[in-house]
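INTERNAL TRANSFER SHEET
From: sequence group
To: structure group
Subject: Pentacotripeptide-repeat region of PRORP domain-containing protein

Please process the attached sequence and return the structure record in the designated field. Keep the field labels unchanged so the import script can parse them.
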Amino acid sequence: MATLAAFRLSLSSSFLPCPPPSVTKTTATHPHRKLLISASSSSSSSSILKSPKKKHWKIGEYPGVTETSIPQYSSNNKKKTPIKNIKKKLDKKNNGNAWANTVTEALSEAIDKKQWHRALQVFEMLKVQPFYQPKEGTYMKLLVLLGRCGQPGQACQLFDEMLQEGLEPTSELYTALLAACCRSNLIGKAFAVLEQMKSIPHCQPDVYTYSILIKACVDACRFELVESLYDQMAERLITPNTVTQNIVLSGYGKAGKYEEMEKILARMLESTTSAPDVWTMNTILSLFGNEGQIEMMERWYEKFRNFGIEPEIRTFNILIGAYGKKKMYDKMSSVMEYMRRLSFPWTTSTYNNVIEAFSDAGDAKHMEYAFDQMRAEGMRADTKTFCCLIRGYANAGLFHKVISSVQLAGRLEIPENTSFFNAVIYACARAEDLMEMERVFKRMKDKQCQPDSTTYSIMMDAYRKEGMSDRVYDLEQEKQLMKAKILKGFDGAETEAASDVDGKMSLV
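Return from structure group:
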């Protein structure tokens, strides 16, 4: 109980903001595994990049301030404005310019760090300034950000505000809005956006628009809608490209429709506009690798090589991840050594696959060794890295190292997304610390991070073990309410229109 109490108190404080650390690189060796031996002989040196110099407005560059805009006085005018007053006004305007430039940089920083709430706040600050005129590119970045962060309601609201301000929409902006809906599985709303695009002459959908919508239908296993979208593309003389075919190919494979998958592959081999490429290869290998069908994965690897398709870094990472999940460490090491011989660098994804393999097995010793070598080679850890570390330490029962990993992630300013909080909640559940689990869950919602099915599944399993059926019921209700709130992000008319379009498309 003392250990659990320490775990609870330390983990709560670990979420507080921490000052950036002085990161030291360490090199570790291990005599019992040949997994990462070759790294010591060919370690890469990290280059120090100089941060770009911040540009501020110079005197006279302020929009609207010209020499003619400064009051001129003749020698006969008795009431002259003191020179010092003019200087104060110019200084005030110049300081405003520097402030605006700083806020613009803050907006870019928030977008880069995927902090959608802060980005919208900074954007609102900029829009009230008379000298700032938002452009299409800014709206595009914000729409993409909101889509990636699972905020379709905010994306629709931003799009409407853009139209009210008189900015002409484009097919690219509409496609970004459609993609935001698709990322949250709002297929009906996405079809409604598609109909709006088709009604505007200069905002017609292209192959990229249809590919995004096809992917959403594939992910939802709505293959009847995929066929109808293919028919629409044919009517509009839009030819599916390799990306489109790869999306459908992946969907058929995940759904176990192997016959349809082979038909798509055969069609691609005969086509001149959608010939298979390395992404096709990666899609097939990833499909069989995730299902643990190693023999089929290796067989298709040889087939694609015979087609003349050369592997890339992601191809090798897929193989490493598949071997790692099956605990085939020898083959995993062979692929990594083969990458070294071909001068393919090990990337963050490469190390993440290795760390994940040991994390799932609860092998904290080799997981730490891979992480130490990753940092020694100058690779930057990301959110997935720390998710694997946290889950790995939890699987090994080393809950004090879970706390240190969360603290290190804070010092390195690792983005805290849904997967990150899920990993911490999983660790709390493994430690049987339900009080801390609830605190992490509350902080997750305070950080505007949307819980998903995995979040609720972990917590409900933890409550069931303790016989807390009332808490399980509460979470079930909250889960249903969360889905209702997402749909409520649109007004009633939009929701009804989206449902009508979805119903019509399902009958095609």
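Handover comment: Confidence is low (pLDDT under 50) at residues 1-51, 53-82, 489-508. DSSP finds 24 helices and no strands in the chain.
Transfer complete.
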